[in-house]
Amino acid sequence: MEIPWWRDAVVYEIYVRSFADASGDGVGDLPGIRQRLPYLAELGVDAIWLTPFYPSPMADGGYDVADYRDVDPLFGTLADFDALVTDAHALGLRVLVDIVPNHSSAEHPWFKAALRGEGRDRYVFRDGGDEPPNNWQSTFSGPAWTKTPDGQWYLHLFAPEQPDFNWRNPEVHAEFLDVLRFWLDRGVDGFRIDVAMGLYKAEGLPDLPPEDQAFRSESPIWGRPEVHEVYREWRKVLDSYPGERMAIGEVWTDSAEDLALYLRPDELHQSFNFAWLEAPWSATAFRKVIDDTLAAVTAPTWVLSNHDVVRHVTRYGEGLTNSTAGLARARAALLAMLALPGSAYLYQGEELGLPEVKDLPPEARQDPVFRRSEGSLPGRDGCRVPLPWAGAAAPYGFSPDGVGPWLPQPVDWAALTAERQAADPGSTLHFYKEALRARRELRGALPDGITWLDAPEDALVFTRGPLTCVLNCGTEPVPLPPHEHVLIGSAPVDGYLLPPDTAAWLHTP
Ligand code: NOJ
């Protein structure tokens, strides 16, 4: 049976500032992406997701949008965007763009008007006197409220430069429906929805218990029941366009059941399954996430890294003396992820095995998390360092020679460039290409569910029709179950025993 393209797509996240710089200003841009589309087609992904490229003062790397219907000159023009979509489609790549509906930039004309006292009801303004109206904390540290010169306070769940919209105002609904149409009319295949479980705040804006400020499935801040109405409206718009347009929500929840609420048939098509990304290197933990997800969600997704979290090569290597174990585990986790039913989201650079850059100098760091926590939190710049494409020294082909990228690249990334790895059959880039090719070849032959086979406690073994996937998270080799041949391993596999920190796909007719 034909399934919609997104049901088993592999989507590649492009953090636009850090992908490829064609203009030579040290910042990635749309023409840079366009030039590199053949690389992505050859890698074997089905779609790209572009992080925000809209006009923005860049207080949060573009997640502070000043105009939802244009391209920031830093990244190019609308004509560049159109050309990018045309070329991507010609190469068989779908294009998702990021929609940021929880907040705008403080430079958005609506917020500037609100500060002048016009249309304040589009945002969340309250009287508070000398103290903020409640005890809510910003996700980026510090109070979630900032006082305006006339004494009122406005809400910002993120930086003060990102005022939260008031979704109880119908004007906000109408505006975003129009923004969706604007990009759908330009040919995008779908949207990634930023902070999709935000948007509505509980009536009366009640105080939170101090220990209860973190992301939650449902709280006065997150996961309000009213938010689902927004996605029902959006779904109608998406469904009114030809060609299986879709939306994936950035939804942080406590359980797969709560995630499933966003995926009811008249709401979002997909949501990121962060439980997979948050799981430690443990077969038991992975098994639980897989079981919980498949029990609750009919269109699952899997993701190991994105522009907000420590790269998984580094996460999995944390605390280990063996410096190559993080990469070995990252490759193994990728293979397990690609064997699961549903779609997979990759983050740029993971195909090169890039680690988190932990030693960025404080003066180079740009994430508001670092600034607002006064350096006590490193922030997310370490996973956003511009990609190394080619050459022996920075900027490694990211920018033209002689141009310094917006974040400095490590001196030892020459061995990790796409160019070097393309020439090495043992490279991580080569492994990603092979894994994606193997997945494509199996497309259509795999049932929707998985069957667990008996396995040692530290290993996962499951089948999907002719495919058996084995992942060894333990410290001892694991015997491989009966099979015809090994389709692919995350490291060399002899056919009988799977070494620790390794995964393999077996053909079992
Ligand atoms: C989630 C985005 O992925 C992150 O980068 C951003 O800082 C916040 N939402 C706020 O928009």
UniProtKB/TrEMBL annotation:
Family classification: Belongs to the glycosyl hydrolase 13 family.
Protein name: Alpha-glucosidase
Organism name: Streptosporangium pseudovulgare
Lineage of the species this protein comes from: Bacteria, Bacillati, Actinomycetota, Actinomycetes, Streptosporangiales
Record-annotated Glycosyl hydrolase family 13 catalytic domain positions: 13-384
Classification via InterPro entries: GH, GH13_cat_dom, O16G_dom_2
Pfam families attached to this UniProt entry: Alpha-amylase
